[in-house]
Request: fold
Amino acid sequence: MNNNTPTSDPSCQDDFDPNSLPVEIAIAQIKAQTQATQVTQQIPTENSLGLVLAEPLRSDINVPPHNNSAMDGYAVRAQDIQPNAVNKLTIIGRCLAGETFTGEVIAKSAVRIMTGAPMPDGYDTVLLQEHIERQEEQIVFNTAEKLVSQGQNVRYAGEDIKQGDVILNKGRHITAADMGLIASIGIASVLTYRPITVAFFSTGDELQSISQPLEAGQIYDSNRYTLRGMLIRLGVRYWDMGVIADNPDSLRSAFIQASEKADVIISTGGVSVGEADFTKAILTELGNVNFWKIAMKPGRPLAFGKVNGKLFFGLPGNPVSVMVTFYQFVQQALRECMGETEATPPLMLQAKAQQKLRKRPGRVEYQRGILSTNKTGELIVSGTGDQGSGILTTMSRANCFVILAMQTTTVEAGEMVTVQPFSGLI
Ligand code: AMP
Ligand code: MG
Reply:
């Protein structure tokens, strides 16, 4: 395999079709049929990572709850400080984090204070300990050398969150930072949507399951493992139904079982021309499914619709097509089914192509790339090798898709291209 030539075979004309469906239209049609689950559950904050909030979260408190010092130093009153002069203030007490200073306010005084400790009433400014000289029970500092401004080094009550603020909206996918934010307002449990269940199976008489010996003409089923990985990352529940044989009875019963137990059904294989007729007949009987030819590579054939009222994605069989179509069509839909309304679109960057990338117009290509930075800090992208839709090694080596738009033709080395890092795809 050659690592330096991420090419598609330009002589291969078989998958160009001027009547094929643009990616954006397929996405819009999927979106139109996607609905958020309505099933909710109360979950301890500590177990909420990756779930989606089913109600807005409002704070009953200010965060921080009191004005406090941002630094270790001395709390003073700005009104006691002379500009352009040597100032001397008497230390009248101290206040550590977790304590409150209850002494009286005295003119020309200072209170020793530590980071996070509440500001003593009547004091409005904190001087850093590095900026003063301590002389027994006095602090001495020169405002000609170091300016003091009122309020410096003070954190104010409510400066992070004000009492009554909505800190997170309904439909928010809970991140690690969100877990801390929820804890900072003292909330011990949250109402979330219950994760949806996705049933998936592979179709194909040539498929053997791992840990079984390969018979003549067989290949191992890899799609159920890439799918499993992508579904686990999304935080959905899943049901791996195994390999379903290419015959109408097995397929019909797999679809019926899946639609009874799961919220969404994903199959791989059996949707390409030649195989589709077979699947089409069953799906016409069980639901309303469209068989699309999408103007993309890889991933041209895709079936989408409802089977017994459940969302169904019939992904192509080729292992890389499965991943490309999952990331471009299924992932976003599953996030919406999980109740997410604030899903940030996947990150897109511009990077300089390191080699010539062959491409034909009339379809969007999702080539596999390795994104990195060069010595001068520029984003660069190289191909991972053979771009065939069955070549999983070049997918495994990649960390991004290079997305070449519909009308783009061959890209020369040094041109800028759009890349979608896998990290942004979950
Ligand atoms: P199909 O879409 O069923 O015509 O399959 C297209 C190609 O993908 C064929 O070469 C299949 O052998 C291969 N394929 C289908 N399903 C899988 C699978 N689960 N794992 C690995 N390869 C597969
Ligand atoms: Mg097949």
